[in-house]
Write a structure and sequence with these properties.
Elements: E1 7-12, E2 22-24, H1 29-37, E3 40-47, E4 55-58, H2 62-65, E5 70-74, E6 83-94, E7 97-104, H3 106-109, E8 114-116, E9 119-124, E10 145-152, E11 159-165, E12 178-180, E13 183-185, E14 188-192, H4 204-213, E15 220-227, E16 246-253, E17 274-279, E18 285-288, E19 301-309, E20 315-320, E21 334-335, H5 347-356, E22 363-364, H6 385-393, E23 409-410, H7 414-420, E24 426-432, H8 434-447, E25 449-455, E26 465-471, E27 475-477, H9 481-493, E28 495-498
Parallel strand pairs: 2-28
Antiparallel strand pairs: 1-3, 1-5, 4-7, 5-6, 6-7, 8-27, 9-25, 9-26, 10-24, 11-14, 11-15, 12-13, 16-19, 17-18, 17-24, 19-20, 20-21, 22-23, 26-28
């Protein structure tokens, strides 16, 4: 008759610890058993029944057994199930016997006996890392921002002189202007090149002298600079009755590097780690999130559209195209500074300037927009100590002035900006510095992203490892209650699954989505 108390006991050395920060993932029980069997240092096949979470009397000396840290055993008389356990203490009894105290490895023992249900997943490695798909705020320190690249449009720097008059330059006949870009005007506009403002016949100076000689000097109501694109293709007269505003587009490249660093995790290619700053060159700007642009073409460029109306000082606005799900989100735009008014040698100019006061300083102030509203994450005490300490060390302590989507500025600086060649629109590619990008990238490598979703946690979706952290995780299975609670604690504190024991904690490996 066979001995019904026969059990198999194997002593192993494996890279697992009972803090459960790291564990192994297997696709089948046979693959699991095969790995652990390959790590056996001592095997015994004639032991009596082994009690769970107790101690094992091993007929070996202490100096042999202390090199082992793990046990697998099977009570063959009752089932073919393998139990896996950590060695928590080794006690010398005599030269031929050592007592080995064990604690069940609840993850490996019940790996194929429990199921994680839909739970509140706080952090995990995602299964789809498309740029812009994951933007839940992390609350990490980002430091100062640097300029990676800039795309400047130059059409607003190519200027001409526009004269508003109630008399034509040739016939000196009285006239009514009509509409310019849909705006009614009581005067007609005539344009001249900048080299025609002074000089001989045909220039602005000649026109003014002709009006003066014919007693019509008061016909000129204004003279100002305007971009050539806004005045049409005519050589002199600007044809009225234009019912639409002038417009043109310019493109700027999206970012795939941060301060010349290529991140492994695409969340770094979203705000607040990088953004695009649409500036008018004189203090007014709009912070644009590149992940919210939908017109990214194969070349990696986005489009900004510029509109304008021909009025004294000119009214010009740049708007991101196909942004935030809208073709032209007008409120996300920025105005260009007022272009300079010009003077001429008649007393009428002084009167007109006094009456109209066109270049009075105008402040642009935007409301503060609250960004990055996170989801409450529950009891901080449930967070694993290692993750909590690391997260706290990376926490945001420096509050940037970049929270509003539009910074403050002053339109009255248009004159000096025009003279300096800066009164145009520029899109700056801004990012955190390389140092911070590397720090945060490695943090994401270890702990994935904050997702704050009710879902079944991802598993078996990365090439080398994946991290999971839940709050009040939901798990079911035919498992002893004490072990079930330990498994839940592992998920609530955060646990990393690895495919290969030889790669545990090797975060330098690629970790592609599979």
């Amino acid at each position: 008759m066979n001995n019904v108390n026969i059990s198999k006991v194997y002593l192993l050395g494996v890279p697992l610890e009972n803090d459960y920060k790291n564990t192994l993932y297997f696709t089948s029980a046979s693959a699991q058993q095969s790995y652990f069997a390959s790590q056996v240092k001592f095997s015994f096949t004639d032991f009596s029944y082994q009690r769970k979470d107790h101690f094992i009397r091993v007929p070996r000396g202490y100096d042999d057994v202390y090199k082992c840290n793990y046990v697998m055993y099977q009570n063959t008389a009752y089932s073919n199930k393998w139990f896996y356990a950590f060695i928590t203490k080794i006690e010398y009894v005599d030269d031929g016997r050592t007592d080995v105290y064990i604690e069940t490895d609840v993850i490996q023992t019940w790996l194929f006996d429990y199921n994680v249900k839909a739970s509140f997943v706080e952090r995990e490695h995602v299964s789809d890392d498309t740029i812009g798909l994951h933007t839940v705020p992390e609350g990490l320190e980002t430091g100062e921002y640097v300029i990676n690249n800039r795309a400047r449009e130059t059409q607003n720097l190519n200027l001409c002189c526009v004269v508003g008059s109630t008399a034509s330059p040739g016939e000196l006949a009285n006239l009514f202007g009509g509409k310019y870009n849909g705006i009614p005007s009581g005067i007609a506009y005539y344009k001249y090149g900048l080299d025609e403002i002074t000089g001989d016949s045909g220039t602005v100076q000649s026109f003014l002298q002709t009006l003066e000689r014919n007693g019509k000097s008061e016909a000129v109501s204004g003279m100002f600079l305007a971009p050539i694109w806004l005045t049409g293709n005519q050589q002199s007269v600007i044809i009225p009755n234009t019912n639409s505003v002038g417009e043109f587009e310019f493109t700027s490249p999206k970012m795939n590097k941060l301060d010349n660093y290529t991140p492994r995790n695409n969340k770094l290619l979203c705000y607040p780690y990088c953004y695009m700053n649409l500036s008018n060159g004189q203090g007014s700007s709009a912070i644009l999130h590149q992940e919210l642009w939908s017109d990214l073409d194969v070349s990696g460029y986005v489009t900004t559209k510029v509109y304008g109306c021909l009025v004294p000082g000119c009214s010009i606005r740049a708007i991101p195209k196909n942004y935030k799900g809208i073709q032209l989100p007008y409120d996300e735009g920025v105005n260009l500074g007022k272009l300079p008014q010009l003077n001429w040698t008649t007393d009428q100019y002084t009167n007109w300037l006094t009456q109209n006061g066109v270049n009075i300083a105008t402040s642009l102030t935007s409301g503060v927009v609250a960004t990055g509203v996170g989801i409450a994450t529950g009891n901080a005490g449930a967070i694993g100590t290692g993750l909590l300490n690391i997260t706290n060390s990376l926490g945001e302590v420096y509050k940037h002035s970049l929270i509003p989507p539009q910074a403050e500025g002053n339109l009255n600086s248009g004159d000096v900006s025009t003279a300096s060649g800066f009164n145009c629109f520029t899109v700056y590619n801004m990012s955190i510095r390389r140092e911070y990008a590397q720090i945060i990238d490695k943090y994401f490598d270890m702990f994935g992203y904050k997702v704050n979703l009710v879902k079944v946690p991802n598993k078996n979706h990365r090439s080398n490892w994946w991290f999971t952290k839940c709050i009040d995780v939901n798990i079911d299975g035919d498992i002893p209650n004490n072990d079930m609670q330990k498994i839940k604690d592992c998920y609530n504190k955060g646990i990393t699954f690895w495919r290969s024991a030889s790669n545990i904690q090797n975060y330098s490996l690629s970790n592609d989505i599979v």
